[in-house]
Amino acid sequence: MTPALEINGLTKRFGEKLAVDAIDLRVPQGSFYGLVGQNGAGKTTTLSMAVGLLRPDGGTARIFGADVWSAPDEAKALVGVLPDGLAMPERLTGREVLTFLGLLRGMPRDEVLRRADELLDVLELSGADGTLVIEYSTGMRKKIGLATALLHAPRLLVLDEPFEAVDPVSAATIKTILRGFVRGGGSIVLSSHVMALVEQLCDHVAVVDAGRVAAAGTLDEVRGSRSLEDTFVALVGGEDGGIKELSWLSH
Ligand SMILES: Nc1ncnc2c1ncn2[C@@H]1O[C@H](COP(=O)(O)OP(=O)(O)OP(=O)(O)O)[C@@H](O)[C@H]1O
């Protein structure tokens, strides 16, 4: 079966820094795929290239077989993206943002209004109907970002840190929606620093270290009999005894 997302040899250099070093990744259809890695490992750069937001120096990205760079319209119709630090039209309400983006995508107005209504309701944003995005909390921003990613009913969701700075109640809502999306036949790739969350949600995981994939596969293949956190620390460094303490903090 064609993978939901397949990236081959994706590479990106920023000046001297090789941020992503010929990464390969294969996200099977119907999978809930977690991308984990330390700060600066290259997750955001990889995901940005995978969805056509950042032009790679080399390599390819295909969404259900459609090349993100040579067949962008086909590829982008199939994917919903929650980028890191999503820029939103700040002076619109959540409903206006959804209506604006839906119409930009060429969706029929009635359908946009109906879906916006449902998304705001399910994401518990209906109560903030008169509130401008500029006044939204961080969690509300993530939720409206997720709504914009879902609006056109994509088959693949690519979410960069969807739970960062989100409170547990909003996180529970987002988890329910994402699980429902996968149950309904969708595929998800998300990046996260929170191993427990990835273990709870994902069935596949890739550990990215210094711009390369250090391990990838099903959750059980990658972590074996250990916790994902122990596996992660063993793979990306942090040898025992290597962690220094601050002596002047002892009383
Ligand atoms: N626009 C840019 N210009 C210069 N360097 C960049 C740029 N974007 C990313 N980098 C560098 O590329 C490397 C990978 O960054 P990236 O943001 O992809 O990592 P990440 O795994 O998403 O990190 P985090 O978990 O902290 O979000 C880092 O060393 C970063 O400093």
UniProtKB/TrEMBL annotation:
Its main location: membrane. InterPro entries: AAA+_ATPase, ABC_transporter-like_ATP-bd, ABC_transporter_ATP-binding, P-loop_NTPase. It is found in: Cell membrane. It comes from the Bacteria. Residues 5-235 form the ABC transporter domain. One of its GO terms (molecular function) is ATP hydrolysis activity. GO terms for biological process: response to antibiotic. One of its GO terms (cellular component) is plasma membrane. Coiled coil: none annotated. The keyword Nucleotide-binding applies. It is a peripheral membrane protein. Keywords: Antibiotic resistance, ATP-binding, Nucleotide-binding, Transport. It holds the Pfam family ABC_tran. This is ABC-2 type transport system ATP-binding protein. It comes from Plantactinospora soyae.
